[in-house]
Specification:
Blueprint (H helix, E strand, L loop, with lengths): L4 E4 L4 H9 L4 E3 L14 H17 L6 E12 L2 E3 L5 H11 L3 E12 L5 E12 L4 H9 L20 E5 L2 H5 L3 H12 L5
Parallel strand pairs: 1-2, 1-3
Antiparallel strand pairs: 3-4, 3-5, 5-6, 6-7
Length: about 200
């Protein structure tokens, strides 16, 4: 029996890099999923459903001993889910909302085994504490363009780290893929040890 094939149902370079760091060489294939179909669900259900939709969409193109990994990350504050900002004004609004307080980051992750059709979807939740941000800091950060492709308009692994006082939970969850939880899922559900 050969080695299994891993496919990441994402275009996120951050997720691919995290997998690479734990020794998983994954092919990339972007899922064709309309994320707007998931509405009015709690954040944990939103991300697990979207991760499942992404993984199952990509899995239909593969067969055999292939594992497709899907993921979705959102930021949640005051019950409002913050996805990726649509424009600069929305990015600024999100950063003002996060300023000086804590929020939660949810990442749903799903693994589909193409041969058996088994799909397992779970989520992680991390609390992130932002320092108080001045309008000048927000403007300077938005000018870097970094916030524009990230949920909640910041990247914890880049310049956005300058705003973060502390976190409770998994740092890698905030980056976009909770690798410890993912490894546990592989071991418990598919008897694959990533170590």
């Amino acid at each position: 029996m050969g080695n299994p094939l891993f496919v990441l149902a994402s275009k996120s370079p951050r997720r691919r890099e995290l997998l690479k760091k734990i020794g998983v060489q994954a092919e990339l294939m972007t899922a064709n999923v309309d994320e707007s179909v998931i509405k009015n669900l709690p954040p944990e259900n939103t991300v697990t459903e979207l991760a499942l939709l992404k993984a199952t969409d990509v899995a239909k193109y593969f067969c055999g001993d292939t594992y497709v990994i899907g993921a979705d990350t959102v930021v949640c504050v005051d019950g409002e889910i913050l996805g990726k900002p649509k424009n600069i004004d929305e990015a600024k609004r999100m950063l003002r909302k996060l300023s000086g307080r804590s929020h939660f980051v949810y990442t749903g992750y799903c693994v589909v085994h193409c041969k058996s059709g088994v799909a397992v979807s779970k989520y992680e939740k991390t609390e992130v504490f932002f320092k108080e941000l001045s309008d000048k800091e927000i403007d300077a950060y938005v000018k870097t363009r970094e916030p524009m492709d990230k949920a909640g308009a910041y990247g914890i692994q880049e310049k956005g780290s300058l705003f973060i006082e502390k976190i409770n939970g998994d740092y890698f969850n905030v980056v976009g893929l909770p690798v410890c939880a993912l490894a546990k899922l592989f071991k418990e559900e598919f008897e694959i040890n990533l170590l």
